[in-house]
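Hello Y.,

Per our agreement to keep a running log of every chain we model this quarter, I'm adding this entry. I've kept the format consistent with earlier entries: sequence first, then predicted structure.
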Amino acid sequence: MRLVGDNVEMGVYPIERALEIAEEQGLDLVEISPNANPPVCKVMDYKKFVYEQKKRDKALKAKSTKVTVKEIRFGPQTDDHDYEFKKKHAEKFLQEGAKLKAYVFFKGRSIIYKDQGEILLLRLAQDLEEYGKVEQMPKLEGKRMTMFISPKKKN
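Predicted structure for the entry above:
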């Protein structure tokens, strides 16, 4: 087998000699490439290797960000006070870095007011312009008109 590693003279050794070399250094003999001809083994501290691998994975996981999506629901004839109340919540969500899914739900025959629903969502987008940008313009899907707003990056 081919032997590699720190403090080891690289070369092709029989298995017994490779195990002796690893034992002399108080390390493990780990097979790296079993399909190679001859197979490649490395002399290293396996527990330390596994520990550092876990540490690296944990650091990568910590750096990745999780995107949360917050929803705000309106009716087609939402009055000003309710609109302002929900707009404040939307501002807070966007400042926290969450995506916003704003939608107008049409119940029963209220679907005839779909233009009012679209105006309401566009007004919301305009009011939240400084906190986020529109990712998807208002789109009618069944009884819902949905719009997505993503937060602006902090400088």
